[in-house]
Design brief:
- By secondary structure, the chain is α/β, with parallel strands linked by helices.
- 27% of the residues lie in helices and 30% in strands.
- Strands 3, 4, 5, 6, 7, 13, 14, 15, 16, 17 and 18 form an eleven-stranded mixed sheet that branches. Strands 1, 2, 8, 9, 10, 11, 12, 19 and 20 form a nine-stranded mixed sheet that branches.
- It is globular, with a radius of gyration of 22 Å.
- The two termini are 44 Å apart.
């Protein structure tokens, strides 16, 4: 067994002082959860309103899913675009997809205004496909993207793929046939089971380090309007017609609005005085999934990359919520380790465990040996194919992710009482959707009237 040891938390300042709430306070906005969602929400609310903002976390800054991910930045959902269009209609689906893709600009805005100099890479990433079902699934999504006026993803299919004659004529112009070796080179693998590739814009970053640096900026820039408290669990939120009373243990906070930016398992009791019940509904909006990842170091002789691999058969690995196919994901990026900056960190994830009761998850739980072996077997077969090489997994980590019922982030006001707002449900690919949600919450708090969206909170 190994411990839960994240490469992203390893890079945070260990001498940073934490402040716990030690008095009753009154403010305009309380944001619960200091991960990428909460920090970016604080950033945009402070920038676009004159409101006083308090950010709180039950543990430490960015120590939840934000500090326990694979470092990938992507703009896709954990379900196909075609199915989103079928549920919400093509215009609304397209608006939601474009909004998440435009969050690249919001990330740049945060980075520039906070004066950051931490590594954030942006490049064309890839996914390896191995079956005709997977290929048709993504061709259908591409077809709908084109109809919606969105940028389409680049799909390459091996010339020798046995199912090539089966590809539907309606997808003409949405893919190209290429030599099989071209696909394997893109995926950086020798595993010939991958006979097609999907390419689109991706990136990688240490989102925990991003949070640390942005919070430092906010505390300086908005010293009169921003406060941050760690080790401050929120136990109860009592919603009133024009504000909320927040129970933080030994102390209370009064606020005009409360924004939940957690993974969905904050253990918060929500009471809506004089209105419809919210608590039971809220705690069924998401389910918990523990994602397991491992990482090792190698010489920095290759550029950053992010690749997902959908093999033909596998066990104990992550399942795409829409297609039902299992997949692994790999990120390679420059990493500073023990004073050296000339190494790449290879992060691999895929094994996961769904939890019906998130309270059974412990962040200090040991990392199972069978998970390490599963990841190592994949790496030796697919990426680092020297069978005699012993890989030292310097980092092994896991994190609790919140998956919404429909695979789409929850953003906006609670219909039963708009004092309560949400920006939650990482769904495994949460950085860009979190930042998009942050800007949308800020717009609502600034008084803007926004139209319906795929991110709206379901009615009771």
């Amino acid at each position: 067994m190994k411990r839960n040891h994240s490469p992203w938390l390893y890079q945070l300042r260990q001498d940073r002082e934490s402040t716990k709430l030690t008095k009753d306070i009154e403010t305009d906005v309380v944001i619960v959860g200091a991960g990428i969602a909460g920090v970016s929400t604080a950033f945009f609310v402070l920038k676009h309103t004159d409101k006083r903002v308090v950010l709180v976390d039950r543990f430490k800054l960015a120590h939840g899913a934000t500090g326990h991910n694979a470092g990938q930045i992507t703009s896709y959902f954990e379900r196909g675009f075609a199915s989103i269009a079928e549920e919400f209609g093509l215009p609304m689906a397209a608006e939601g997809q474009q909004g998440v893709e435009d969050a690249w600009g919001l990330l740049d805005e945060m980075y520039t205004e906070a004066g950051l100099n931490i590594p954030v890479s942006r490049f064309v990433g890839h996914a390896g496909l191995s079956t005709v079902e997977q290929v048709n699934f993504h061709l259908k999504n591409n077809h709908m993207r084109k109809r919606a006026g969105l940028n389409i993803e680049t799909i390459r299919i091996a010339e020798d793929a046995p199912f090539a004659p089966e590809i539907s004529g309606q997808y003409a112009g949405l893919y190209t046939f290429v030599p099989h070796k071209e696909i394997l080179d893109l995926l950086e693998t020798e595993s010939t089971e991958y006979i097609a590739s999907l390419s689109y814009q991706k990136g990688c970053a240490n989102s925990a380090l991003l949070c640390q640096e942005v919070v430092g900026f906010l505390m300086t820039k908005y010293a009169e309007r921003f406060s941050f408290y760690e080790h401050t669990p929120i136990e109860k939120v009592i919603l009133k017609p024009t504000g909320a009373l927040i129970d933080a243990g030994d102390h209370e906070m009064m606020a005009g609005h409360v924004v939940l930016c957690t993974n969905g398992f904050a253990g918060v009791t929500i009471i809506n005085e004089g209105g419809l019940g919210i608590n039971a509904k809220f705690h069924h909006l998401v389910h918990g999934t523990v994602g397991y990842m491992s990482g090792y170091l190698e010489t920095m002789n290759k550029p950053p990359i992010a690749v997902s691999y959908f093999p033909q058969l596998s066990t104990m690995i992550e399942y795409d919520e829409e297609s039902g196919d299992p997949y692994y994901y790999l990120t390679r990026r420059q990493y500073e380790y023990e004073g050296t900056r000339d190494v790449n960190l290879i992060s691999i994830g895929g094994p996961e465990l769904r939890l019906e009761d998130a309270s059974v998850y412990g962040s200090d739980a040991e990392y199972p040996d069978d998970i390490i072996n599963t990841i190592d077997t994949f790496v030796k077969k697919t990426y680092d194919t020297d069978p005699n090489k012993k890989i030292d997994y310097v980092f092994t980590w896991h994190g609790l992710m919140g998956y919404t019922r429909n695979g789409i982030r929850l953003i906006g006001c609670e219909p039963a009482n708009p004092v309560l707002m949400y920006n939650l449900g990482c769904n495994g690919v949460g950085i860009l959707p979190s930042i998009y949600g942050a800007k949308r919450v800020a717009q609502l708090l600034a008084g803007e009237v926004l139209g319906p969206s795929i991110f709206d909170i379901p009615q009771v």
